[in-house]
Write a structure and sequence with these properties.
- This protein starts with a helix and ends in a 14-residue tail after the last helix.
- The model is unreliable at 1-15 and 237-249 (pLDDT under 50).
- The chain has a seven-stranded mixed β-sheet, sandwiched between helices.
- By secondary structure, it is an alpha/beta fold.
- It has one domain: 3-Layer(aba) Sandwich (Rossmann fold), CATH 3.40.50.
- The protein has helices at residues 2-10, 33-42, 51-67, 81-89, 102-106, 123-132, 164-169, 181-193, 212-219, 232-235, and strands spanning 71-75, 94-99, 116-120, 139-143, 173-178, 199-202, 225-229.
- The chain contains ten helices and seven strands.
- The longest helix is centred in the N-terminal third of the chain and has 17 residues, at 51-67.
- The protein binds S-adenosylmethionine.
- S-adenosylmethionine binds next to helix 6 and helix 9.
Length: 249
């Protein structure tokens, strides 16, 4: 069976693969997404920023300014495995992993390279603070965000949340991975609404999974998906498509 094969491929004799595929009443993008995007584009998101998030941001803002290297943001980094791997593969960048879960961040399994900073903060505030500080990212990762598959929880998905325009303004090559294709289809639509083209494709089997969730999903034999979106200001490509289509491969 596919799941047994994936678990064997993962190795170490561990059967990590017991996670179930996402189930949802939605078989395609949410019909209210476009209306949500229009509403959020026309209004200003005014929820006050929590003091603890402001303080957390301040602890790294000075380091970011001093460092001067191009920035990679790993949003919702969980245990920070991906942030550490990205820092090793991009030694000329500063990698910042952000997650709100102190528990996940504390599960450190490896040495954190000196060009990697892990921070506990809520992204809803962090993205706004980064935008206020005029951060421009080289790369931005959103790996296995919580899918929130219930249709009535649409607004909990980052692309349908009022903070999404702030995320887009941070720029950079944007990459997201998920075990729920619909999430990435919606993300592509939301990016297209903001003038960013995106490509969606199946993720090939990863010999070295980038994250804990990727390892778990692969070991369970789940199909995984990857969305990539180039930053038009970095590549010179124009991706304005407000029809909601995006560029889906
Ligand atoms: C499914 S886990 C994926 C974690 C990691 N990227 C991985 O693939 O192993 C989703 C992560 O997003 C974090 N998260 C969800 N909403 C968040 C928010 N508003 N601010 C910060 N972190 C958030 C959770 O704490 C969790 O660690």
């Amino acid at each position: 069976m596919a799941s047994d094969r994936a678990a064997r491929q993962y190795g170490h004799g561990q059967l990590e693969g017991n996670s179930r595929a996402v189930t949802s009443g939605q078989s395609g993008p949410h019909e209210a997404l476009r209306e949500r995007l229009e509403r959020h584009a026309a209004t200003t998101f005014r929820k006050p920023i929590a003091e603890h998030n402001r303080a957390a941001f301040a602890t790294i803002e000075s380091r970011v300014q001093e460092d001067g290297r191009p920035l990679i943001l790993d949003s919702g980094c969980g245990t920070g495995d991906s942030s550490r791997l990205l820092a090793r593969s991009h030694p000329d960048h500063l990698v910042i992993g952000v997650d709100r879960s102190a528990d996940r961040l504390s599960r450190r399994r490896d040495v954190t390279p000196s060009n990697c900073l892990l921070l506990r903060a809520d992204l809803i505030d962090f993205w706004r603070l980064a935008r206020e500080s005029q951060w421009r990212l080289a790369r931005h990762y959103l790996l296995y965000p919580n899918p929130e598959p219930k249709a009535r929880h649409l607004q909990r998905r980052f692309h349908a949340h009022p903070v999404f325009p702030d995320l887009v303004m941070l720029g950079g090559h944007f990459e997201s991975r998920s075990n729920w294709r619909v999430y990435l289809e919606e993300l592509a639509i939301a990016l297209a609404f903001h003038g960013r083209g995106a490509r969606l494709k199946p993720l090939a089997f990863q010999d070295r999974p980038l994250t804990a969730f990727e390892r778990k999903y692969q070991a369970s034999g789940q199909r995984l998906w990857q969305l990539d979106s180039e930053d038009p200001t970095l590549t010179g490509t124009i991706g304005i498509d407000k029809t909601g289509g995006g560029h889906l491969a």
